[in-house]
Amino acid sequence: MTDPLTSAPVLETERLVLRGPVQSDLPEFTRFMTSSPRMLAQGETVSKEQAWFGFLTGIGHWQWHGFGFFTLTVRGRNLPIGRVGLLKHSNWPEVELAWHLYAGAEGNGYATEAGLAVRSWAYQAHGFRQLVSYIDCENRRSQAVAKRLGAKTNGTRADHEPDAEVWVHPPEPK
């Protein structure tokens, strides 16, 4: 592993380590962004150059907001298996809890486990009272993760992404 590129804390769950991005994460991120079957199915693949800019944008997100995507790794292994984190782009009305798992990591409950950790951190460290997830209406797997996280769709569409429903996460228990 190389030096951290952000101020992201390290979060740990029973099976996972969530950390900020490092330079060695770029190849797996690029592979996902340029050729993932899920990205292809949604028409969202990008070029290698666009993936590089996206990776750098993720680093900048941490600098600008103090939050962003964590890189997921399985305890004892440093190979990235996906990203889970918080996003707030300039034209988005609310902070989003988002997740992307890389090939081979799906179906193990990692997105749910990491989502719970990131959501708890977001509520405690940043004082957020609510988070949302913008999920494509056809993305049943992400909808299932949202349900396992206790989120519910409010029936509206995201203004910035008309094919995505707004899923509202429950507040942090007191």
Description:
This protein has five helices and eight strands. The mean pLDDT is 92. The strands form two sheets. A five-stranded antiparallel sheet has the order 1-2-3-4-5. A three-stranded antiparallel sheet has the order 6-8-7, with helices on one face. The relative contact order is 0.14. It starts with 10 loop residues before the first strand and ends in a 6-residue tail after the last strand. It is of the alpha+beta class and 174 residues long. It is globular and about 40 Å long. It has a domain at 11-128: 3-Layer(aba) Sandwich (Aminopeptidase). Helix 1 crosses helix 3. A hairpin with an 8-residue loop joins strand 4 (80-87) and strand 5 (96-101).
Strand neighbour order, sheet with most strands: 1-2-3-4-5
**Mean residue pLDDT:** 92
Helix content: 25-40%
Number of helical stretches of at least 4 residues: 5
Secondary structure topology:
Elements: E1 11-12, E2 16-19, H1 26-35, H2 37-41, H3 48-65, E3 69-74, E4 80-87, E5 96-101, H4 110-126, E6 132-136, H5 140-148, E7 152-158, E8 161-168
Protein traits:
Aminopeptidase, about 170 residues, alpha+beta, three-stranded antiparallel β-sheet, 5 helices, five-stranded antiparallel β-sheet, single chain
Would you summarize the structure shown here?
By secondary structure, the chain is an alpha+beta fold. The chain is 34% helix and 26% strand.
